[in-house]
Amino acid sequence: MNRVSKRAWALVVLIAILLGGLGFFLGEFFMNASVWVGHTNSPHLFGNSGTAAGSVVDRNGEMLLTIGGASSYAESAAVREAMLHWLGDREGKINAPMVAYYAAEMSDYDLLNGLYSYSDVPGCIELTLSADVQAAALKAMGDHQGVIAVYNYETGEILCAVTTPTYDPDDPPDLSQEELENNEAYDGLYWNRVTRSVYTPGSIFKIVTTAAALETIDDIQQQTFECTGAVAYGPDTVTCENAHGTVDLKKAMRKSCNCAYAQIADQLGADTLMRYVGKFGITTSLKFDGITTKAGSFDLSGAADVEVAWAAIGQYTDQINPLQYMTLMGAIAGGGSGAEPHMVSRVARGEDPVYEVRSTSTGRLVSAETAQILTELMRNNVENNYGSSNFPGLTVCAKSGTSQVGGDQVSNALFSGFVADEEYPLAFIVVVENGGYGSSTCVPIMSEVLAACKDEMDKN
Ligand SMILES: [Zn+2]
């Protein structure tokens, strides 16, 4: 090869590298530029430069946040507190994921010159959340720490998503690092538990085990189980607080009989349980509006039979994310599939929509028949255990859970399910950390929150 052709080849290689790099840059630029400029701590959003303007409103157009110049939050202190972990604070301790995600749409960011057009027309993010329901949920939660979430399983709209503890961004607590770390009232203060926490589910997980049993054990509804108060696995046992005697699936669910569920777990086996937990989405993340939820976990690799039994009862190493579990409840309520949740319905500049949500489905998670049977079993729980009078005007189907959290800590209380009424297609979950018994702590809370949701839906 002579010198000239060597040089020509070297030039070709250099040009190829240049073009490759340019292609990569442009790809990154078009994919991510709006995210870069819309970073949560971007001065365009929360600075006082006045360069970007906009607002965030609730599902009824109630003002939750105005951005630009001197930013301001909702008028009601309760609404400010209930919205804090979605809209962020002034000090950058808590971010505003949706504002960051839709910043480019809001402020008319121009991809070609990298500039905001700073049009006179302010952008507006319309949330699916209801300020009234948020305030009612915060009140129902009282001094408890935890999560309340409710969504419409037909449309995917999240009506309620409250995480506590919280505070008023217009009157933040003046805490030293030491106070923050040592004051239990402020445990995880800056943490959005709705999206970023996972919890041991306890007996609300029996819905998952029941679904797997209905789909794989032909005669599961004809079987009976003996509960003497304990099932032995060599030196280990699975126990109930009381002996429940002879129970079928319906009664095992209503009494939350651990011994019956241990016997069901024996029949299912670790592999089938893991396969169905995966299929139900427990171990995957939800993604919407710039938010990614923490995935739950369910790992039975190398587990002994007694550990598989405890896992089927929602203990062992099981972990669920509240929003993900709520979505599974929505799929059961929807006859086997439901809508994926979202929190932004529309972004507009003036009258012009620049983003409108399109509802997406979970796909089929359980068969229509399984969904129907689960609905009947969970309705029976409410009618004969939790009390249907706690939910006037709503056909609530649910399961409570009390999950052990280790050491001498008081158990976490959980309650999850859905409303089986066409006019009120709502799925929900409440987690009260160290709340004690699931039903006694959570039913009164969910009673208030669902009543507020019903009022909200009756407005339209
Ligand atoms: Zn029992």
Largest sheet: 6 strands, mixed
Number of helices: 15
Each distinct ligand: zinc ion
Strand content: 15-25%
CATH class of one domain: Alpha Beta
Give the class from helix and strand content and strand pairing. Answer: alpha+beta
The CATH H-level homologous superfamily of one domain: DD-peptidase/beta-lactamase superfamily
Given as residue ranges, the uncertain stretches (5+ residues, pLDDT < 50) are 34-51
Rg computed from alpha carbons, rounded to a whole number of angstroms: 25 Å
CATH topology of one domain: Beta-lactamase
Query: Could you tell me how far the N terminus lies from the C terminus, measured between alpha carbons in angstroms?
Result: 80 Å
Q: Give the second-level CATH assignment, the architecture of one domain.
A: 3-Layer(aba) Sandwich
- Write down the overall geometry: globular
Helicity level: 25-40%
